[in-house]
Specification:
mainly alpha, elongated
């Protein structure tokens, strides 16, 4: 451990992770011999059961819907089904559902447009989460330089980068 560099660098983190990979954890989730998961319960997880029941219910409801929508009345009477909704709802219900989905998407997009500040607002450039870049001075070599913390790039740096050549062109043209 004495040969590790003093600076937090990605190289050091990766080298430590290679060494740690050989050691096993005291609680192995993939251990199938015990049959007990992290919560101490046996059997399938509730999310798996709900997903299975939901998928079977969806398939059965779809089959019943198509039988009701496409089979003639005489065939339904032969099966023993005498009471069912009007065939109008076979067209109206999916149409209403699609219109509700489209209107919901349009409403959601409209709310996002209303919540977004205009392009001329300073809130587009700076907000309460903005960070100024921090200057890191390290005496380490180029290979051991740490990753800089996340920060925002100033608008003057962006303008200089994007429009530096166009300023020079305008000066030479005049």
């Amino acid at each position: 451990m004495a040969d590790l560099p003093p600076v937090n660098s990605p190289r050091r983190v990766l080298s430590l992770s290679r060494k740690r990979r050989d050691t096993g954890s005291f609680l192995d989730v993939e251990d199938k011999t015990s049959g007990i998961g992290l919560s101490g319960q046996r059997g399938p997880k509730p999310a798996e059961v709900y997903g299975f029941v939901g998928s079977i219910t969806t398939v059965v409801a779809t089959v019943i819907f198509f039988i009701w929508a496409y089979f003639p009345d005489q065939w339904l009477h032969l099966i023993g089904i005498f009471y069912y909704p009007s065939r109008y709802w076979a067209i109206a219900l999916p149409t209403y559902c699609m219109v509700i989905i489209v209107l919901t998407l349009a409403f959601y997009i409209g709310l996002n447009f209303m919540a977004t500040p205009p392009p001329t607002s300073f809130n587009v450039i700076y907000d309460e989460h903005s960070r100024e870049p921090e200057m890191l001075t390290t005496l380490a070599g180029e290979d051991d330089r740490p990753i800089e913390p996340i920060s925002d790039i100033g608008i003057h740096q962006i303008n200089e980068f994007m429009f530096k050549d166009s300023k020079r062109q305008r000066i030479t043209l005049t």
